[in-house]
Write a structure and sequence with these properties.
The complex is a heterodimer of chains A (about 210) and B (about 260).
Chain A: E1 2-6, H1 14-26, E2 32-36, H2 39-44, E3 47-50, H3 56-64, H4 69-79, E4 84-87, H5 89-92, E5 95-98, E6 104-105, E7 110-116, E8 128-133, E9 151-156, E10 158-162, E11 168-173, E12 177-184, E13 187-190, H6 198-210
Parallel strand pairs in A: 1-2, 1-3, 3-4, 4-13, 5-7
Antiparallel strand pairs in A: 5-6, 7-10, 8-9, 11-12, 12-13
Helix pairs in contact in A: 1-6
Chain B: E1 5-13, E2 16-21, E3 24-28, H1 32-42, E4 47-51, H2 61-72, E5 77-80, H3 86-95, E6 99-102, H4 104-108, H5 111-120, E7 125-133, E8 139-143, E9 148-153, H6 154-163, E10 168-173, H7 185-194, E11 199-202, H8 208-216, E12 222-225, H9 227-230, H10 236-245
Parallel strand pairs in B: 1-4, 1-12, 4-5, 5-6, 6-7, 7-10, 10-11, 11-12
Antiparallel strand pairs in B: 1-2, 2-3, 7-8, 8-9
Helix pairs in contact in B: 1-2, 2-3, 6-7, 8-10
Classes of the chains: A alpha/beta (about 210), B alpha/beta (about 260).
C-alpha cells in the first residue's frame, strides 16, 4: 500500500507518519507512507490521509495554496474511490460548511456543518480535551475489533454535525453528543487523534489500511 | 465520558532527566526517551517535558528528545521551558510535540500568547502559571522558578490568558513544588473555577491522595506529577487504581 499523508503546513506529520508505519507493521501489512504536498503523489497513492490542526479556514487556505492538490484529492477520493481518512480538522474539512471565525466552505463531501461544541453543562471545559469513550451502534470495517467504550484522544472546540444521521459511525458523550467518527462510501473522518491514541489508535489505523471499500 | 488525565512530567536538562526539590539541587536520573517509553507502556494519558536547560546553545537538545519520543510513543506530548518566540513553538511542533507551554515569555509580553494561538491554534498553546498564595490569601504569579514575584494576581491572569487564546492552563503551586505535601488546593480551585478551559494541577504531589484532592477539591481537569512516578514511588497504574477507587473517572488499560 502507498499511504499519502497530505502536508499543507498544518503541524507535525512526521510522528503521524510513524504511527501509520507502526500500525502497518503491527498488522503485517506492507505499506509505504509518504508525507507529501504534491498532487502527483495522490494519484499514485492507494490510501489518503488528511490531517489538520488549528482553525478551519486556515487549514482550508493551506490546502488551497497547494497547486492542484484539491483537484487531485477529489479525483482520488470521489472519482477513484480510494480509502480516505480525515483527522481532526482534516475530518471537519469533509463537511460542506465551517463556522469557525466566520462562515467558510469545506470540501463538501459530507453534507453538514462544523459548529461550536454545545454542552448542556456549563461547568464542562472547552476545548473537549482528553480521552473519551467511543460508542457505536453500527458495524463498520474501520471499527473492527474495537470494543465499545474504547478510549481515544480528543482536542477540539468545534464538531461536525452531518445532516444525514447515517453518516455518523461513532459518538462520544460530553455534556451532549459529539460525533467522533463520520463516513460514507470510501471515506472516514475522525474527530480524535488516532495517531495519539496509543494501542486503540494504532488498531484503528490498521483497520483503515486493511479497509477495501 | 471524558476521563481525568494523569500526566507524568519529566524535567529535562541538556537532554537528561532531572528532578529538583523547590527548583534547586537537581539530581541527574536518566534518559528521557527511555522514561517516556515506560510511561507510554504504563498507560499515562499524556506526557510533559519541562526543559530547564539554562544555556541557549544546549537548548537544541530538547528537539532531539521530542523527536525520538514522538517517533515511538503515540500519545500526546507537551513541552515547556524556554518557549520565548513563535519559532520556538514551530520547532517543537515540527519535532513532534502536540502542545507548547509558555510561561515567562507570557508574563513579559502577554500578546505573545495571542500571537501564538492565532498562528498555531489554541489547541496547542498551554499557558504555564507558577503561583503562590501570598499573605492576604491572594494568589500571585512568580517567574524564574518561583524566585521572582510579579505582583500579578493569578486568577485575573488566568482569565486574561484564556481571552488571549490559551487552550489549557498548567498551574504549578510554587509554594508546594518539591514539598510532597500536595497541591495548593485553594489556588487550584480558584483558577479552575475561573476559566472555561482545562486546568492541569501541578506541584507538591507526594501521595496518591494528593492527585484525588486536585480533582475533587481543586476541580482540576488533569493532574501532573514528576517525582512520584520518576523515582518509582508509584506507577501510573497504581495512581489510576487509587483515583478510580476514590470515584475519579480515569482511563483504564486500553482495551482492543
Amino acid at each position: 500500500m502507498n499511504v499519502a499523508v497530505i502536508d499543507y503546513g498544518s503541524g507535525n506529520l512526521r510522528s503521524a507518519a510513524k504511527a501509520f508505519e507502526r500500525a502497518s507493521s503491527m498488522a503485517d501489512l506492507e505499506s509505504k507512507v509518504i508525507v507529501t504536498s504534491q498532487a502527483s503523489d495522490l494519484s499514485a497513492a492507494s490510501h489518503i490521509v488528511l490531517p489538520g490542526v488549528g482553525a478551519f479556514a486556515d487549514c482550508k487556505k493551506g490546502l488551497e495554496s497547494l497547486d492542484g492538490v484539491i483537484e487531485a484529492l477529489e479525483r482520488a477520493v470521489i472519482k477513484d474511490a480510494k480509502p480516505f481518512l480525515g483527522i481532526c480538522v482534516g475530518m471537519q474539512l469533509m463537511a460542506s460548511t465551517g463556522l469557525e471565525y466566520g462562515r467558510h466552505d469545506g470540501l463538501g463531501w459530507i453534507d453538514g456543518e462544523v459548529a461550536p461544541l454545545q454542552c448542556s453543562d456549563q461547568t464542562l471545559k472547552i476545548p473537549h480535551m482528553g480521552w473519551n469513550e467511543l460508542m457505536f451502534s453500527t458495524s463498520h470495517p474501520f471499527l473492527n475489533g474495537i470494543v465499545q467504550g474504547s478510549h481515544v484522544y480528543f482536542v477540539h472546540s468545534y464538531g461536525v454535525v452531518p445532516k444525514d444521521e447515517s453518516h455518523v459511525l461513532a459518538r462520544v458523550n460530553y455534556g451532549g453528543v459529539i460525533n467522533a467518527v463520520i463516513g460514507r462510501d470510501n471515506m472516514i473522518g475522525v474527530q480524535f487523534h488516532p495517531e495519539k491514541s496509543q494501542a486503540v489508535g494504532l488498531h484503528l489505523i490498521s483497520n483503515f489500511l486493511k479497509w477495501r471499500p | 465520558m471524558l476521563k481525568v488525565r494523569i500526566i507524568p512530567c519529566l524535567d529535562v536538562d541538556k537532554g537528561r532527566v532531572v528532578k529538583g526539590v523547590n527548583f534547586v539541587d537537581l539530581v541527574d536520573a536518566g534518559d528521557p526517551v527511555e522514561q517516556a517509553r515506560i510511561y507510554d507502556r504504563e498507560g499515562a494519558d499524556e506526557l510533559t517535558f519541562l526543559d530547564i536547560t539554562a544555556s541557549h546553545e544546549d537548548r537544541e537538545t530538547i528537539f532531539d528528545v521530542v523527536r525520538h519520543t514522538a517517533e515511538e510513543c503515540f500519545m500526546p506530548l507537551t513541552v515547556g521551558g524556554g518557549v520565548r518566540v513563535l519559532d520556538d513553538i514551530r520547532k517543537l511542533l515540527l519535532a513532534g510535540a502536540d502542545k507548547a507551554a509558555i510561561n515567562t515569555a507570557a508574563v513579559k509580553r502577554p500578546e505573545f500568547v495571542r500571537e501564538a494561538a492565532l498562528k498555531f491554534g489554541s489547541q496547542c498553546i498551554v499557558v504555564s502559571i507558577d503561583a503562590k498564595t501570598v499573605g492576604d490569601g491572594r494568589h500571585e504569579i512568580f517567574t524564574h522558578g518561583g524566585r521572582n514575584p510579579t505582583g500579578i494576581d493569578a486568577v485575573q491572569w488566568a482569565k486574561r490568558m484564556t481571552e488571549y487564546g490559551a487552550g489549557e492552563i498548567l498551574l504549578t503551586s510554587m509554594d508546594r513544588d518539591g514539598t510532597k505535601i500536595g497541591f495548593n488546593l485553594p489556588l487550584t480551585r480558584a483558577i479552575s473555577d475561573a476559566v472555561p478551559i482545562p486546568v492541569i494541577a501541578s506541584g507538591g504531589v507526594g501521595e496518591l491522595d494528593h492527585l484525588v484532592e486536585g480533582v475533587i477539591e481543586g476541580h482540576a481537569s488533569a493532574v501532573l506529577a514528576a517525582s512520584i512516578f520518576h523515582f518509582g514511588t508509584y506507577t501510573i497504574g497504581q495512581a489510576k487504581a487509587h483515583m478510580k477507587a476514590a470515584g475519579v473517572p480515569v482511563r483504564e488499560d486500553p482495551k482492543t
